[in-house]
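<backbone_tokenisation>
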Amino acid sequence: MLPCKPANNVDWPIPGSIHLADPLFHRPGEVEVLLGIELFFQLLEPGKITLSTDGTLPTLQNTKLGWVVAGRYNEANNSYGSHTPTCLLASTEDTLSQQLRKFWEFEEYLPASNHLTEEEQLCEKHFSDHTIRDESGKFVVRLPFLRDPTQLGESKQIAAKRLRYLEKKLDRNQQLKDEYHAFIREYIDLGHMSLVSDTKTDSKSVYLPHHCVLKTTSSTTKC
């Protein structure tokens, strides 16, 4: 509990215009948080008020949290309590043996488990069979499918229908159309996609409908 006993601050010349970080600093209360020294000096602000010239009253210091009160306080009728020092101690109840055991548990090396599920085994086999490294040094991995992609059905018809809907939407907004086309051209320039013809596709080809996403709060591009 800090302070260890109530302080009579009625006659303290604290300016009424300042904002105290703890208006009830003079009443004993539990410590809620301890701030390390790495934060202490970052909280300090210009401003310091000495409440007395003889050291019988504490000092006010301005911080980002408000003005804080710290220092010695001499009571008029009892000089013993004002000179009682206060020490804060953070400790642990763990014994040395418990701390040492925890240390070795944290540092213990545990070999990886070889008990992989069938799905995990298929994933590892797919990675080892289809991972290559291109001329630029990038790793290329084929998209994995848990099931045969032909189960997706006639994805080309669905994508074409979605594309026609998107074209009608873009025709009504020229600015959005220009931004969307620029986005697609950037994908092509970066090599993320390339144009194919129907003659190059086969029965395993899957078409994914694409559409633009609008973010009206964006200051640069809304598409």
User: Anything to note?
Assistant: The radius of gyration is 35 Å. The first helix runs from residue 37 to 43.
